[in-house]
Each structure stands twice: as C-alpha cells, then as structure tokens.
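Protocol step 4 of 6: structure prediction from sequence.
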Amino acid sequence: MQGDADVVRTSNYLLAGMAPQDLELLWPSLYRENLPAKAYLERTGRRSDKIYFIESGVISLLETGDMRDPIEVGLLGREGMLGTTSLVADLLPQRDSYVQIAGRALVITRSDLLRASRSSDKILTYLLRYVQTQIAQMSLTVSASVRANVQMRLARKLLMYHDRVGLDDLPLTHENMSIMLGVRRASITHAIHSLEGEGWIRAQRGLVTIRDRAGLEIHCGPFYGVAERRYDEIMNIDRSTHANRSMRPPGLRALQV
C-alpha cells in the first residue's frame, strides 16, 4: 500500500514522538482515513485488522457488557491510538469504539505494523507504554464515577474533550454526554445548567462552548489532571523541553491545534 507523503507532518502524538528510524519503518504502510461521527471503528468480539493513530476528533471506548445502554469507559484523540489489543496477541476487541466527534486518523494494518516491529523491537515497547496510559485513564474514570457528582464528572469529561479537540466549541449533544457519563438525559440537563450558571460553559443545541476552562479545572479538583500527568510520565514527555519542537507536543494539558 502506498504510504502518505504527508505523514511526517502528523498531529498524532505517538507517531510524532517516535524515534525517526522507527517512524521510517511505519510510514510507507500508513494511509489517512476520515472518521465520520457516529461510526464504529471496532465492535466487541469482532475482529479488526486496522490500527488507528488518531489525528483529530474524539473516540469513545464504550462498555456494553451488561446489555444495557453503553457507557464511556475511556476516550482517546490525537494523543493516542486504537487497536492495542492486536499488539499483544491476536485478540478480539473487548469494547466498542465509537466516533463521538468526527476527525481523521492514520491507519496501518496489524500485519504491516508487526512486520515493521520485527525490524525494531522498540516500536512495540513504545506503543505498549501508551496502553498503560489508557489503563491509568480508565482507573481514574472509575474513581471519578464513584467519588464525584454528575456536575464534576461532566466538567472533567468536557475538559478531556477540550484537550483533544483543541477548540472551545465542542459538537456534543445531550445524547453524547449521556453516553459519556452513563446517566439519564435529565441529569445531563441539570448538570449543564449548573455549569452554565457558573459561567464556565455555554450550551446550545448540539454544541457546548468552553467559556472558562480554569473555572472547570478548579471545580473538578483532583478528578482532572492526574491521568494527564501520568500520560506525560509514562510517555516520558518533559514539557519544559518542547517549547520549540513542533513534533513533540507539550502534554495533554497544553494541547493546541
């Protein structure tokens, strides 16, 4: 498959932070693909041969194991990749992966990635570190689900989406936010009114605008920021060294388009 000549300008953090000699092994097999909103990129128990390095948009990892309405147990954007189950073994996806906000990704097949990794064992080691950041994010989502109220949980999720989209206007509906938190739409409406009343957001039909990010962060307290710092630590990102290096972004809390 013909590689994309623009891949060296990718906004995906994992590819941007990869050793140049390892990226050179991957790029001939990478190609860009649009990710339309509401599309499923993976389904539970169904084999997928694609691995996505997200460049824009937001992907929800949905748990549906109890056969009730899906709930978002994790999310990823330009800091990450989708398809990690296939890195360890020929496993089937254990969650649905759903495009909450449309975007695009650089895609490679599992066979092509594994072929490249045979030329450099550092590739899989590096990508498996990212798996640890997802585990950290999910564990902190569980903690917030137990300890934080709906308003704080919604504020946390809006900050996480804001990190990945990089724009103040987030194309989110009540349905999107209900899936995020696994609560009824009436609870979402109440939480939105609460956050709007503080002047931190403005909500319109199908759109949430971040007006005061600092206020949202203060409101979240310890429920936002820990997973983001762990990402930096696990991926060995030192924000102080990235001021003039466009290929190595300065951590999730300072994302810019």
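Step 5 (inspection) to follow. The domain at 7-144+226-254 is CATH 2.60.120.10 (Jelly Rolls).
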